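Morning F.,

Quick status update on the modeling queue. The single chain you submitted on Monday has been processed. Sequence for confirmation:
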Amino acid sequence: MAVRRLPHWLAIVVLSVAVSPVTASSPIPPAAAEQSAYPPSPEATRFFEQLVERYRSLIRYTDSFLFEQRIGSIDGDQRSEVHTSVRARSRIDRDELVVSTRARALTESAAGSTEPGPARQAQREVDLAIAPHLRLRYVDEPLREFRPGGEGFRATGITTVELENQPMVRVELRSVGASPGHPGSVFGLTVDPHSMLIRKVDGEERLADGRQCTTSISIDPSDSEVIPATDESEPSEPPAPPVDLPAVGGLVG
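Structure tokens below.
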């Protein structure tokens, strides 16, 4: 059987998921359904917190991504459907964030660069709307603020998946208040467990006018650098030996 070496701390998390998965698809006893709805998963929450720490530590980062979003029709009128497709590049240089699209380049070329203050903050919100993976770096409470407005999200599930024939970890986020009868908004973050960088975001949500909105973002990170250790004189614990894990299909089933 093919094996894949993962960082030892991640292997422990993934193995615990394989033994006792706590995912949004797990059955909920009827008596507890109303109380628990989709409860947070300890494993998923812990992994999400590690992911936030990783993005918080980035001082330099670049990627290219494809943002695709489809908003359904109103009362079956296909003319009201909206399909958006945007190719973009994002760059982090310490606290600065730049998300470049062709439309933005043309606008800034005509109007000049964005002035500091409210206009820059408004532009950042626009940038994070199409690059929500970078909310982990720039918002105070990434779970609560993963999407603007609403009551926030919970990390409700974690599983292993494949992306481009590589093993990945997928964390599921569900909006607070979601229940089996009212699933609310759900997003999945597909993460490369070796780089701890998000490679894909996919989600479904219902808009205020009742239309269904589906989002898919494919991300190709090209460069990253983290904050260096502040005190190299302190001895660190020796790394644990790598853990051999079965191929993705053998972990969860």
